[in-house]
Structures are given as structure tokens and as C-alpha cells.
Amino acid sequence: MTALVVPDRAWFTRDVHVVAYDLLGALLTRRTSQGAVTLRITEVEAYAGPADPGSHAFRGETARNRTMFGEPGRVYVYRHLGLHHCMNVVCSPPGEASAVLLRAGEVVEGVDLARARRAAAGVTRADVDLARGPARLTVALAVDRDDDGTDVTDPEGALVLRVPAEARDDRRVATGPRVGVSGDGGRADLFPWRAWLDGDPTVSAYRAAGPRRRRR
User: Fold this and answer.
1) Looking at the whole model, is its pTM more than 0.85?
2) Fewer Cβ atoms within 10 Å of its own Cβ: the N or the C terminal residue of the chain?
């Protein structure tokens, strides 16, 4: 079995696309008083800050997106359309506001707890759907706006990321347009910045942007 390590902050200070690719297959553990849930990340989207028309940071820093402009290795959590939460991992040097949205994962530990959380929030048909999509993922992990800014490089923290100690080349990674992003930021020819483990059943379905969708 490949040894896993908690990456240091420098690991996140790399280009957003490199971090996004390396997050695929990594494990994210959430600890609460109820217990721990761990998922294997299977789908991500890269957002490149002020240079990216699909990013929340495109028009600059605000109270809402301030975490994106800060220290890499922390999570940026926001409420999407007032309905559900989405979680991103901040990367690149401070000020660049790059982040990787965690779109989907496979729950590998704490399945019963994740299932109970999802059942309380809505219908759960199968375990493969527990974290299939960014809203389901945060529900399964019990992540909300109170977790904004949490450090995933702290081995004893509430959210801890673990990655392989050595680089891998055994994954089949597919790429395509980001989900639900309107305007140029959603164009497949300009921003094919969604990446996923090809063939994994926990990867979410692609949906094009509808009218008046807000930027991430």
C-alpha cells in the first residue's frame, strides 16, 4: 500500500492545476464529536483567481472570498445560491486567490455517519452517491461556513488531507469543462479545468450553466 503523508504548506503553493491533479485520489478526513469520515477525492475543478472569469476572485477580494487570497492549505467554504455549501482548497502563493473545488469523492471510512447525515438532508439511494457532487460532499463531511479558513495541513486538525508520499502515474485522469459555470469561464475550449478519475462511479454528472448562475 502506498504510504500517505500530510502535505506541508509548500505543497499547496504550486500552480493550481498541478495541485488539482495531485488531489485526485488523496484522502480527506473530517473529525467531529460524532466521529470521523474520510473520503477519497475523485473529482475537482481548478479556479485561477483574478485571471479566471469563472472564479469568485475575478472581481477582487471581498468579505466572502477573503480566504482565497490568504494562506494556501486552508479551505474556502461558501454557500452556493443560499442552498448548500461548497468546499475549496486554497493554493498558490497568498494574494493569487487560486483554489480547487472538491466536486466529488468516495466515502471510505465513516460510511454509516456519512449516510446518516445525507439521509437527514435528503434522499440517499446508494453509498456511491454519498459525496457525488460538491453539496453532497460537504453534507457527508458536515462542513459549512464555520469551517471557512480551516487548515488541512494540521495532522490533528478538524480537516486533514493525506496524499501519497511519492508521485503516481497509475491514475486515469480525464478533463473537461467546469460544471455550471456561465460565460467564458464555462467554455470547454478556454477552461477545461475540471478533472476526474476516469470511470469512477462517484464522479458527478456534467451539467452546463443555466441562466444567472453565480461565479465560484
Assistant:
1) yes
2) N
Classified as helix, coil or strand, 52 is: coil
Q: Are 68 and 88 in contact (CB under 8 A)?
A: yes
At residue 100, the 3 state secondary structure works out as strand
Which tens digits make up the pLDDT trace of 103-160? 999 999 999 999 999 999 877 789 999 999 999 999 999 999 999 999 999 999 999 9
User: Do residues 197 and 171 touch, judged by C-beta distance below 8 A?
Assistant: yes
- Nearest partner of 37 among 133, 126, 105, 123, judged by Cα: 105
What gap in Å lies between CA 194 and CA 82, rounded to an integer? 23
Instruction: Give the domains, in start order, of the chain with CATH numbers.
Output: 4-196 (3.10.300.10)
